[in-house]
Specification:
Length: 201
């Protein structure tokens, strides 16, 4: 009689590695998080990491994609792609702030990534491009393209529109997570409205 193995309870090693890396980088930063520590936290051997990722750089880039996918799944709940541009923009930005407030580890990682050589190698504008790693453009990028075509927002490169949107949002998220300002729905709505005012025609 063979062993009855409960595979349903067996953790996904790749996800375990990603989650361990996320937690450690959020607390310690990229350079203070060696693969040996990631392996220990994920309860695997160091060699196992390299069965799923080419090297630490590849792991960090894949973690970025993992976090972005998780954020998009959360942000897109109840999103109406047929709503007016302004309404869609305000909804997406407010949801991103809500996600960051509820997920400080993910928020910390994204901020570090975008302001590190990892983010520079990819460039912020790559988030708005369709490539082999992203079968679909992010909804905000789709909104920007359509809104520019219909002359609803300023005709600026995606990375400029992204900077005008995400710069203030990242600052607000940082202050909320640091406890400098309290999470206030009305204040967030006004801040997002100001971002819209910066890009609209």
């Amino acid at each position: 009689m063979g062993k009855n193995v409960n595979t349903a309870q067996k953790p996904d090693k790749r996800i375990a590695i990603l989650e361990a890396t996320l937690e450690l980088i959020a607390e310690q930063g990229f350079h203070n998080t060696p693969t040996s520590q990631i392996a220990e936290k994920a309860e695997i051997g160091v060699g196992t990491i390299y069965r799923y990722f080419q090297d630490k750089d590849d792991l960090i880039h894949k973690l970025f994609e993992y976090v972005i996918e998780k954020e998009n799944e959360d942000v897109l709940r109840e999103y109406n792609p047929k709503a007016p541009f302004r309404e869609r923009y305000l909804y997406l930005c407010a949801r991103m702030i809500q996600f960051a407030a509820r997920h400080p580890k993910e928020s910390s990682f994204l901020e570090q990534y975008f302001h590190s050589p990892y983010g520079l190698s990819r460039r912020r504008e790559d988030v708005f491009k369709q490539d082999q790693h992203k079968p679909k453009k992010p909804p905000l990028a789709i909104l920007f393209d359509a809104a520019i075509a219909q002359q609803v927002i300023k005709d600026l490169p995606p990375y400029v529109l992204g900077a005008l949107t995400f710069g203030p949002i990242f600052e607000l998220i940082r202050d909320i997570n640091a406890g400098i300002v309290s999470y206030d729905t009305e204040m967030i709505a006004r801040a997002v409205e100001a971002c819209w005012d910066a890009i609209k025609r």
